[in-house]
Amino acid sequence: MRKFIIKRILLSIVILFFVAFVIYVLMRSLPASFVESMAMQLSQGAGAKSFDEWMAQLNASYGLDQGIVPGFFTWLGGALQGNFGDSWKYAVPVTQKFQEVIWVSFIMGGIAFILELIIAIPLGVIAATKQYSRTDYVITAGALVGISLPTFFFATLLKLFFSVQLGWFDLAGLVGRDFKNLDAWGQFWDMANHLVLPIVTLVIVSVGSLMRYTRTNMLEVLNSDYIRTARAKGLSERKVIYHHAFRNTLIPLVTIVGGSLPGLFSGALITETLFSIPGIGYVSYEAMRIGDIPFSMFYMTFLAILTLAGNLISDILYAVVDPRVRIA
Question: Model-level pTM?
Answer without folding.
Answer: 0.80
